[in-house]
Amino acid sequence: MGVLYEGRFDARGRKVALVASRFNEFFTRELIAGAQDCLRRHGVPDADVDVAWVPGSFEIPIAAQRLARSGRYGAVVCLGCLVQGDTPHF
Prior knowledge:
Blueprint: E1 16-21, H1 25-41, E2 49-54, H2 60-69, E3 75-79
Parallel strand pairs: 1-2, 1-3
């Protein structure tokens, strides 16, 4: 058997940005809540988590890029939900 490498997920001292789409907000609010809960469990206080709401999925990468380039965050998490149905998603 080879060497086993196992890390710890300890995010204390890191600022995190969450980027979420308002489109299908019913679902994205739950995704935000889940992400915040996960971060809390791994040592990130609520004060170190910023949430950026954008209109739809097209704006998520633009906002994420701007936040990442700011140098303020150890991670940028993108959350959105597209539901297949009557609405076309190009």
